[in-house]
Write a structure and sequence with these properties.
EC number: 3.1.3.11
Largest sheet: 8 strands, mixed
Cofactor: Mg(2+)
Subcellular location: Cytoplasm
CATH topology of the largest domain: Fructose-1,6-Bisphosphatase, Chain A, domain 1
Order of helices and strands: HHHEEHEEEEHEEEEEHEHEEHEEEH
GO molecular function: fructose 1,6-bisphosphate 1-phosphatase activity
Mean pLDDT: 87
Keywords: Carbohydrate metabolism, Cytoplasm, Hydrolase, Magnesium, Metal-binding
Structural class: alpha+beta
CATH architecture of the largest domain: 2-Layer Sandwich
Oligomer: single chain
Distance between the termini: 83 Å
Strand content: 15-25%
Length: about 350
């Protein structure tokens, strides 16, 4: 019997399916001396819910689950049907996974106490960001933050467990549902991206060790609100235009951030007359993306201090957000310092 050594196919006739998310998580468990598999399981639970939401998103037009649900959430925003569906999917996956003791969701007025006495983690999540774009087939996403609870397992959940600054995150990530579905996350040891292979039902490592370009030439902002911007924001955008930078704004936070993370750019959502404290939520939107940006070599600020340094004071606290390539954010800060947080 003749035995031949394995030789990989480099012909280009077949694409490679490399490291699965599950295998990657197992390989990285040693980075968490304080954990014994719980965080790894939690990331798997999030990935499972993301697969389900991806399926629902892809069949939204056929299943009549696009459009408005007919209710508003705590933000005063009209809920979309997929907002509700995604919230249910993530709630179920996280509660059944057994690693989480409490959930903060954009779609829930209050903290959800899962009554899980052994749970060591608190999740803050926007189950479906940009869901109003569903009806026009534009990319949307999920954003999540993971914190270790401060109080001992078995004791009641307290404000101390929930109101943690972004610096205390142990993991954060987002899922982008677009032309392909991607899960990007960090556990404080760099940023890695995984693309979903639908025929195999697995996320595969496609973007290892993501590093944001130091500089860029893309700016992302809703220019329809320019009459409500502070002078510092106006001056910076005028400079971007004078340099012939490209304006790219999808209106889906995850999609805009993802593009700028890979290609180099800055995303700006300043305060306005209508939203003097900003519009984006600190706990489950800004903190997560700021942690990812920090690990990828980018920056995130509210115009005065780093996002990750803000001590939250309320569950659905809002904040201005300026995030992206390091040099672009630094240039914005040098122009706008002291001008973007002035009261209207």
């Amino acid at each position: 019997m003749k035995i031949l050594p394995y030789e990989p196919d480099n012909s280009g006739l077949a694409y490679s399916v490399g490291t699965t998310l599950d295998r990657f998580i197992k390989l990285k468990q040693s980075e968490f001396p304080f954990a014994s598999g719980e965080l790894s399981q939690l990331l798997r639970d999030i990935a499972l819910a993301a697969k389900i939401v991806n399926r629902e998103t892809n069949r939204a037009g056929l299943a009549n689950i696009g459009g408005a649900f007919g209710q508003t959430n705590v933000q005063g925003e009209e809920q979309q049907k997929l907002d509700v569906i995604a919230n249910i999917r993530f709630m179920r996956a996280l509660s059944k996974g057994g690693e989480v003791c409490a959930i903060v969701s954009e779609e829930e007025d209050s903290v959800i106490d899962l009554q899980n006495k052994s749970g060591k983690y608190v999740i803050a999540i926007d189950p479906l960001d940009g869901s109003s774009n569903i009806d026009v087939n534009i990319s949307i996403g999920t954003i999540f933050s993971i914190y270790r609870r401060k109080t001992p397992p078995g004791s009641p959940i307290t404000k101390e467990d929930i109101m943690q600054p972004g610096r205390d995150q142990v993991a954060a990530g987002y899922v982008l549902y677009g032309s392909s579905t991607m899960l990007v996350y960090t556990t404080g040891h760099g940023v890695n991206g995984f693309t979903y292979e639908t025929s195999l039902g697995e996320f595969f490592l496609s973007h290892p060790s993501i590093k944001a370009p130091l500089d860029g030439s893309i700016y992302s902002i809703n220019e329809g609100l320019q009459n409500q911007w502070k002078n510092g924001v106006k001056e910076y955008i005028d400079e971007c235009k004078s340099k012939n930078f490209a304006a790219r704004y999808i209106g889906s936070l995850v999609a805009d951030f993802h593009r700028n993370l890979l290609k180099g750019g800055i995303y700006l959502y300043p305060s306005t007359e209508k939203n003097p404290d900003g519009k984006l939520r600190l706990l489950y939107e800004a903190n997560a993306l700021a942690f990812i940006a920090d690990q990828a070599g980018a920056l995130a600020t509210n115009g005065e201090i780093p996002i990750l340094n803000i001590q939250p004071s309320s569950l659905h606290q809002r904040t201005p957000l300026f995030i992206g390539s390091k040099k672009m954010v630094q240039r914005f800060e040098s122009i706008s310092k002291g001008k973007v947080l002035q009261k209207y």
